[in-house]
Amino acid sequence: MRLQSKLILFSAATKVIILLVLVMVLPPLINRIALHSTDQRLLEKKEQVFDIIEVRGIESFLSDSEEEAYGSYNLLKEEFISMEPIDPSLINNRIENTLRKVENEIVEYRVLSLAFELHGETYLLEIGRSLDTIRETSNTLQRYAMYFLFSVVLLTVFMDLAFVKVLLRPLALIVRKLQRIAHPEAFKPSPLATNTSDFVYLNDTINNMMGQVQEAFRKEKDFIGNVSHELLTPVSILQNRLENLMATPDLPDEALLKLVESQKTLHRLKSIIQALLLISRIENEQYLKNEQVSLNTLVNDVVNEISDRAELRGVTITVSVPDDFVLPNANYSLLFTMLFNVVNNAIKYNKEGGSIQISGEVRAGKYELSVCDTGTGIAADQLPKIFSRFKRTHAPDSESHGLGLAIVQTVAKFHKIKLHVESELGKGTCFKFAFKKVNASLI
């Protein structure tokens, strides 16, 4: 998962957790706030009643008769005020929830009960507010609080998404720059336009590292080139000297046989050096891809070149490749070497009187070239190793040095060709080359 996605998911998850906690905590909290607000309102009403009593006297609520009480409810029975004389021994000041019967209807109130003395008499003042009204207010507050919370969560998630995208933009630039590197020598160090020190440090580190890699590649290229040439020169000199010795008229047969064996060894050594030099040059992209190669022509040229070997082994080669596929931006010589090595192996490890089928077809939107033989096949556990250098999975022979398939894989990677191998022991092997999309390659 990408870093940007992880950051956004983490941010969203934390906000959801906070939201769930608030959803659980908010209702009782708002209820407590609503009750506290109601209690404050009741206390304010009490002060207003005392102000009226102070200005107008207790008679504004009670008549001269001490037995008479005062009670007043608003139209919807949401609030009430009552006052009555009481026995001083019954004084119990409190605020509590209680039920009252109003016009044959039981209503639950939040009631402030307060006893006070005036002119030697004790009176009970009660001020109440309907709990249904309190609950309705509380529910309204809860509903709007939930709307607000959900809105805030959604808004902050989108803001986090935008912020994370902007914050990680330098990292995305670094990744894209690295993805565009086809070869270390193609890398060009560049500064990063950001004030985030971590990304600046990362970019500088990558620039320095790639500079070291480029220097290592240059040294390797020079080393391989110099060593190969230095090795080829003495090998060629030794070959010439051996040829001159072999031309000596009075040379004994035993010495001539040893010279021939030495020539074979030198030829094999020369082939190994040339193969390694070829692989190195391909990997260092020292070859151009400036040709358009017809696969039909390529296959026919390879078959014509190798047909004599196939006849000696009694192997039949069948070609079925349409002539309408042309590979652009390619190197004919390298593709020839790639296909030649595969067909040569198909002949070398085929059965007497066996066959090789070379076919081309469009499959899954791509052009696929297959080279299938009826040879000895390769064991399943050996398939992953067949492209390793100096690794021979077939029976050893004096000609092979285990670099043929390594060259095949290197050329395929150089041309961005997907290579797939299928094999069954005792039945044969099939090499499949998947080229670029047909729409981009057909002419």
From TrEMBL:
The chain crosses the membrane at residues 7-30, 144-168. It is found in: Membrane. InterPro entries: HATPase_C_sf, HATPase_dom, His_kinase_dom, HisK_dim/P_dom, HisK_dim/P_sf, Sig_transdc_His_kin-like_C, TCS_sensor_his_kinase. The keyword tRNA-binding does not apply. It comes from the Bacteria. One of its GO terms (cellular component) is plasma membrane. Residues 226-439 form the Histidine kinase domain. GO terms for molecular function: phosphorelay sensor kinase activity. SUPFAM superfamilies: ATPase domain of HSP90 chaperone/DNA topoisomerase II/histidine kinase, Homodimeric domain of signal transducing histidine kinase. The keyword ATP-binding does not apply. Its EC number is 2.7.13.3. Pfam families: HATPase_c (PF02518), HisKA (PF00512). Keywords: Kinase, Membrane, Phosphoprotein, Transferase, Transmembrane, Transmembrane helix. It catalyses: ATP + protein L-histidine = ADP + protein N-phospho-L-histidine. This is histidine kinase. It comes from Pontibacter ramchanderi.
